[in-house]
Predict the structure.
Amino acid sequence: MKKIIAALLVSGVLIAARSPGLYAGAARESAKTITVGATPVPHAELLNLIAGDLAAAGYTLKVVEYNDYVQPNAALAAGDLDANFFQHLPYLESNAEWKSALAAVTGVHVEPFGLYSNRLKNIAELPDGATIAIPNDPTNGGRAFLLLQANGLLTLKPGTGLEATTLDISANPKNLRFHELESAQLPLALPDVDAAAINGNYALRAGLNPVRDSLIIEGADSPYVNYLVVKKGSENDPRILALSRALTSQKVKDYILSHYDGGVVAVF
């Protein structure tokens, strides 16, 4: 048995040594494939929209869908992805490891962040002591507090930045209570809370339209543009340049305008 195994190993080495074309072919295929991690709506939808355009340019687009905000950055940093498309710059920069390893290359759209409720028809009905579910990551949690402040529901301490927490609240006239959850779980929490502050992509996936269904919504000056993100050093990779061009085409802009009813806003 040992002799058979040894013979097979030697045979494999000889075949590999005599077949450099196998490796060259694999390298060529890799150079023409773009693997991108994305959350389903609208990111994966927009990527799938341009797969044919990239194919015409000689590239194969592979979209890997994620349902959270951590795995796509971990996979990109590990080299399992060529790019990801799901996040805004404040989120990318909230983690020192991601900030040092990854680079935002192309801004594509904003998903207006809103406050939703199954119990209330308008924000004036929000009761004293209401429970509001908010994202549990620092940047999107802070985004919720900034939205509430912009609508007069609480006041943050002067100088509070984008990563506001409950400790930064200086006035809370309605004695609002906050329940932190992973972003993808926020739509599921709507039956159990008075309101929930939900990212646009998860609102859309749950069948909510930020413009029609939210009690309050971010204005057009939102700093939370969603970017195509790559590993540092690959910003000028021909595959990334081709992907960036396709994502900021008139085709994508027209699709955003016609499919999301204001729930996604192109920034290019």
Summary: The chain has two domains: 32-111+224-266, 114-217. The two ends are 64 Å apart (CA to CA). The CA atoms of residues 119 and 125 lie 9 Å apart.
